[in-house]
Amino acid sequence: MGSITVFKFSSEDCGTCHRMSHYDEAVSKELGYGFVNVMLQDTDVYRRYRRLLLAQYPNKVGMGWPTYLLVSDPEGEFTIHGELKGGMPKGDFRKRLDSIEIH
Q1: Which InterPro entries would you find in this protein's record (predicted)?
Q2: Most buried one in 49, 66, 82, 86, CB count within 10 A?
């Protein structure tokens, strides 16, 4: 298995997504993950990675704002290893992200 990237699916209209942007990328990188912010309004980036989101949420029902997916090989035969949904404090984000077992 190669490296893992955290994909954050969010929207410019989401206040919680914006607040978390002050630490989610830094925490992800501290834990050794890559990080890609996929804003729904950024059509080029969203089109590139929407297949990841749709694999987990085919009709987007049950998504949180933001939704984070931990993915290996995102450009190829990707595997989703875990997810986090919704807003949370920095400490909780770190604990929950760190607790996801990568197989």
Answers
A1: Thioredoxin-like_sf
A2: 66
